[in-house]
Amino acid sequence: MGKAGIAIHGGAGAIARASLSMEQEQRYLQALTGIVASGQAILAAGGSALDAVTEAVRLLEESPLFNAGKGSVFTCRGTHELDACIMDGHTQDAGAVAGVAHIRNPVLAARKVLENSPHVLLSGDGAEQFAREQGLELVAADFFSTDERWQQLQRAQATQQTLLDHDGAAQSAPLDADRKLGTVGAVACDSNGHLAAATSTGGMTNKQPGRVGDSPLPGAGCFSNRRVAVSCTGTGEVFIRTLAAYDVAALMEYSGYTLRQACAHVIHDKIASLDGSGGLIAIDADGNMALPFNTEGMYRGYGYLGESPVVAIYRTR
Ligand code: ASP
User: Fold this and answer.
1) Distance of alpha carbon 277 from alpha carbon 254, whole angstroms
2) Counting Cβ atoms within 10 Å, is residue 163 exposed (0-12), middle (13-18) or buried (19+)?
3) Cα(169) to centroid of ligand 1, in Å?
């Protein structure tokens, strides 16, 4: 039986150019630590990997620091369109929602799709209607808005394709908000050796309404089977084209790669060769974890049962 544990991410990206106070950095590290600890507590109480990733991603959605749920980025029309996916590795059941604008916690809607729908992916109004019928909380569209994300949209629209050259003066987060690839996710292995993965996102700033990225697509931004659980963050279109999350599982199953080899190959070779950037978190049935990224940083954390959470933002080597 592998070691039970959980890993989370809150997006990958470039280091902010503005100098940050320790306090700003601490806000992120504390949020990550608390969320890892919540996931560990669920696993320690005998909870399933599916429950642990659901709660970790719900908490990440509730935090305005991360681009999912509250604090989601804006589309080019100043609206929000949220996507989420969850997958139970033991049964290989999956549930997902895409392009929703009023469901407070998209990961909970994805979980309801997994449990109570014959379908895997529901989008837009139909997904919201389903969430309402399932008793989930719906909110006004501006519930997700924050001033920081609105300023980010203004900068993106002012600079159009030169988004990466913005002046980072308004920056207040360790990773440059305009060059950060949003999305949150969690992967876990419970004490039965069962795996699960979940991913949730507001998508990309200034995106075209209707655009769906990799996050709600099983196999692209989220995947779990009995061997491995994976949650991705990055340039969604490249993660879709490479089926990045499934590719980790396939390399392990068909080519005999270890978890670390498979994750490194996907992020540093395959994604990078198509000019994609981002990262992923993964855990295998032995409890091995990998958290690779090809950007300068990724908000991330992990913890095994009975051990203190480990959290980090920047590259450590
Ligand atoms: N992968 C997500 C998307 O493309 C967001 C991100 O991680 O940037 O929607």
Assistant:
1) 25
2) middle
3) 24
Two tokens, residue 133 = 């019928």
Domains of the chain: 5-168+178-314 (3.60.20.30)
Per-residue pLDDT tens for 296-314? 899 999 999 999 999 999 9
CA of 200 to the centre of ligand 1 (A): 9
- DSSP run (H or E) holding 240: helix 236-241
pLDDT of residue 75: 86
pLDDT grade, residue 180 (50/70/90)? low
0.85 exceeded by the pTM? yes
Instruction: Give the mutation target among 8, 214, 217, 293 for probing the ligand 1 site: most ligand atoms within 8 A of CB.
Output: 214
pLDDT, one tens digit per residue, over 141-155 is 888 888 888 887 887
Atom of ligand 1 nearest to the CA of 12: 7
Does 146 participate in catalysis according to the annotation?
no
Three-state secondary structure call for residue 311: strand
